């Protein structure tokens, strides 16, 4: 949660960060430069996924998690404390982009080891609800970031928020870093010394075993592409509500707060359902509902952009859309052998996130700009939901309740 808070908070304050580090002749130009820097954090995520994911398989989950957290801490402090473009010129955006790429490397190596860790500490018939805390922690981070945004936008003027308010939001995450490092140092390791040694000796095992799981890996890539587009378009709704629907900053942050809060509930509930009814039903049917509801929800929001339409429209999509991906996290990790689990999951996750998550907000902003149609985000979400639905229908069932594992 702490690590994702540091990464996601950037998107909530993309406008203010754009004004601070990327002055341009137009609001659109400044926002696009800011979002491009947000995307720069995704470029290094596959590298972090490969390096730290394989590191976790060979050395251990805990060392990999500690390293990724320390790197994220250094990067968030750098962004929060870097002077503005007006103060130090072109050095400011260069430093911010570099820090953002370090963040991406750290987060790329975060998800694989932690998801593998959760699978390995859970009893077989509780894996879904335990692994649910991986996506749920991401939504807790987004909810916390939105809550901070609501508070800051309520007590600060727009000028104060742009000057130093967004920096306070970043520093709140930095304050928690010592606690996070201490907490991870106390975790028991889930890979024995013998397993780590075997993994180091058999350097080709990752490639050989990964080839045997090509079908699952391809389907996982499609599902993650769908999920990350949905996630980062949802995170963009704060900016969308302010710039396209022209609602107040406090309402825009409140919508994000409610949507992300519902996704926390949905993620854990989805894991609970996946343990009882299997992974595939909980992946497929909620995803189908999201596909059906996306366009009508956006149509309602655009035609009547008020508090109720925004809260209910985005809230319903967020809750239902969070159900399938907890089941997927469990299914994908269960389908992978332990000695390649951290590296493969981290790499596939990071590649999908880098390719589709890093570009999602840029694509939506560009679509809105060139079409002038406020419904443009729904087009991209419909395409993503369709791809995800097809892949979820083809994903193998791995739940113990279905396959008879004891």
Could you explain the architecture of this structure?
It is a single chain. With 406 residues, the chain is an all-alpha fold. It has one domain: Up-down Bundle (Growth Hormone, Chain: A). It contains 22 helices and no strands. It has helices at residues 2-12, 14-21, 27-43, 45-58, 61-81, 85-88, 91-108, 111-121, 127-131, 133-155, 158-175, 177-185, 193-201, 205-212, 214-235, 237-243, 249-277, 279-303, 307-334, 338-371, 376-394, 400-403. Helix 4 runs antiparallel to helix 5 (61-81) and helix 8 crosses helix 20. It comes from Bradyrhizobium jicamae. Its main location: membrane. The chain crosses the membrane at residues 31-54, 66-88, 164-183, 216-238, 250-272, 284-302, 308-332, 344-367, 379-396. It is found in: Cell membrane. InterPro entries: H+-coupled_symporters, MFS, MFS_dom, MFS_trans_sf, Sugar_transporter_CS.
Topology:
Layout: H1 2-12, H2 14-21, H3 27-43, H4 45-58, H5 61-81, H6 85-88, H7 91-108, H8 111-121, H9 127-131, H10 133-155, H11 158-175, H12 177-185, H13 193-201, H14 205-212, H15 214-235, H16 237-243, H17 249-277, H18 279-303, H19 307-334, H20 338-371, H21 376-394, H22 400-403
Helix pairs in contact: 1-7, 1-10, 1-11, 2-3, 2-11, 3-7, 3-20, 4-5, 4-7, 4-20, 5-7, 5-8, 5-11, 5-12, 8-20, 10-11, 10-17, 14-20, 15-19, 15-20, 15-21, 16-17, 17-18, 17-19, 18-19, 18-21
């Amino acid at each position: 949660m702490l690590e994702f808070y540091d990464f996601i908070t950037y998107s909530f304050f993309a406008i203010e960060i754009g004004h601070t580090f990327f002055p341009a002749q137009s609001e659109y130009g400044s926002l696009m430069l800011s979002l491009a820097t947000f995307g720069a954090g995704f470029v290094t995520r596959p590298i972090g996924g490969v390096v730290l994911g394989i590191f976790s398989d060979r050395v251990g989950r805990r060392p990999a998690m500690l390293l990724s957290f320390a790197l994220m801490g250094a990067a968030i402090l750098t962004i929060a404390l870097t002077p503005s473009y007006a103060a130090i010129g072109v050095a400011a955006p260069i430093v911010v982009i570099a820090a953002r790429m370090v963040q991406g490397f750290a987060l790329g190596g975060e998800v694989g080891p932690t998801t593998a860790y959760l699978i390995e500490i859970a009893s077989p018939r509780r894996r879904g609800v335990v692994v649910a805390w991986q996506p749920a922690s991401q939504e807790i981070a987004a909810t916390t970031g939105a809550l901070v945004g609501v508070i800051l936008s309520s007590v600060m003027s727009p000028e104060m928020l742009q000057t130093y308010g967004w920096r306070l939001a970043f520093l709140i995450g930095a304050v928690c870093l010592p606690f996070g490092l201490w907490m991870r140092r106390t975790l028991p390791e889930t890979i024995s010394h013998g397993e780590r040694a075997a993994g180091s000796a058999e350097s080709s095992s990752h490639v050989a075993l990964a080839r045997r799981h090509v079908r699952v890996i391809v389907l996982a890539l499609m599902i993650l592409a769908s999920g990350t587009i949905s996630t980062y378009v949802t995170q963009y709704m704060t900016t969308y509500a302010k710039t396209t629907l022209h609602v107040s900053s406090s309402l825009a942050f409140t919508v994000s707060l409610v949507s992300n809060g519902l996704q926390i509930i949905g993620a854990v509930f989805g894991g609970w359902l996946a343990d009882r009814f299997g992974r595939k039903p909980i992946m497929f049917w909620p995803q189908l509902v999201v596909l059906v509801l996306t366009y009508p929800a956006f149509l309602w929001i655009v035609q009547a952009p008020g508090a109720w339409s925004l809260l209910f429209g985005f809230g319903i999509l967020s809750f239902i859309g969070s159900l399938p991906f907890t089941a997927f996290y469990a299914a994908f990790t269960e389908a992978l052998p332990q000695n390649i689990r951290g590296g493969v999951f981290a790499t596939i996750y990071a590649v999908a996130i880098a390719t589709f998550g890093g570009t999602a907000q840029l694509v939506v902003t560009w679509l809105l700009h060139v079409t002038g149609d406020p419904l443009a985000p729904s087009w991209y979400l419909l395409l993503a939901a369709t791809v995800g639905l097809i892949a979820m229908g083809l994903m193998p069932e791995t739940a113990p309740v279905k396959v008879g594992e004891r």
